[in-house]
Amino acid sequence: MNETRISLKRKIILYTIIILLSSVTITLFFVTRWATNNVKLKVENNNMNTAINVANAPFIGDILREGDPEGIIQNYTDKVLDSLKDINMIVVADMYGLRYAHPNKARLGQYFVGGDEKRVIETGHKYISEATGTLGHSLRAFVPIHDSNEEQVGFVMVGTLTDGIIDDQYIAAKNMVFYAIGGLSLGVIGAILLATDIKESLLGLEPYEITRLYNEKNAMLEAIQEGIIAIDHNSRITTINDSALKILGVDDGNVVGMEIGKVFPNNSLERVLATGETEIEKERILNGINVVINTIPIVYEGNTIGVISTFRDRTEVTRLAEEITGVNQIVDALRANTHEFMNKLHVILGLIQTGKLDQAKKQIVDIREQQQNITSLVMDKIKDPVVSALIIGKYSRGEELGIELILDEESNIEKNHGKIHSNVLTTILGNFIENALESIIEDEKDNKRILLRLNENRESIKIEVEDTGKGISEEDLHRIFEYGYSTKSSGRGIGLSLVKERVENYSGRIDVESILGQGTKIVAWIPKEDKHD
142-157: per-residue pLDDT in tens? Predict the structure, then answer.
């Protein structure tokens, strides 16, 4: 299923913007609220201080008690009001609310409006209130006025219209928003730079790509039969696979993070880390195993940041190479041929030593004729010398075991097979015959024989081996090509798996027919014009 993924860079930018936006919004809310409240509080304090100063003027109380016949109070408040910026009104009234000072002189002699003046008249307390007067809605500070006898004779009200306060609060809020937008912009720029830097440090890879590479790396390390071990610039192990643990003889797999010298003494990794020079195909004995070690420095931006080393079992590599090329089949066949020939020589030598020369001569003639007949038949039908040598050797092997090996007279194999190498044929045929021999050995029948049919034409090569052995059960028949599966006591289980792999590499197929207790026929068909390069 296709999945739309957001890139790491976009994720970092998006998440950073969301976090910044959330933080800025919350901060802006509280800071704006604080700023607007601060504007109001500033106005309240300013109004109250002005009202206190006016009320405490030395002459105000006594003049107000006398009724201010000369208008001194009005003149004084006018001068004070002109000197102040954020105050819109100063009103002075007596204990009945009758005005003696007002910004609008036409209102002098009239009673105070708003209703919030009663508290100062009745209690003599100073306070802040909001009310609507003749000039509009305002924030007002009330302070009682006392004469020289400390008797309250009236009050002063200093007010600021709320429209002006709202304007100041709006300006404060706007400034906060402007600063917030600036901070958010810087945050977004920082997020972009941070995301770009992180993406570059990750070599441009996305998180899901890193996860995939990590899983692939672990699977690859375990799938590789070679031992792999890597260290960082501090000579501590960063990677090691099971094959390496096995070759090094380490039982505890939890060695990542340990110093390499404690796990692998006298190693080449620390030397390469110090010199930065690659070491290739270095042989060494580890736990009795002859291994080949390749050690390569890991270089980043001109600096050696670590070392990786691979080592493989040379014995295992040689064995697999022999299996793949069919060398073992040829060697075993020639060894059997030599062994059988030596047995016949011993018989002839015994006849000569006992003086039975006529029988010795007859034995030599029979062996020569028999060997000549077999060799002539094989060489005539099988033009490939490698395959013919295998068949002759297997014939001697069968004769040694009392098993008759028969080559069908209609068989034919050419000297060259196009893209199909002779080693492929020896691997297939040798394994087929060896399995047939072992099947017959385990059976107690008198009629022990193996029939070979090999045919090659322009299109394909067909190899057929039929034996009279014990046969294969239906349960085992489905598993004989599994790697490591075997019904033999030796338990190798590699030969038929290798054969199947070789045949399928050439787009061929293998058919097996077997009847338990009667024998098995196995046929390999390989097209010469295959899809394998």
Answer: 999 999 888 999 999 9
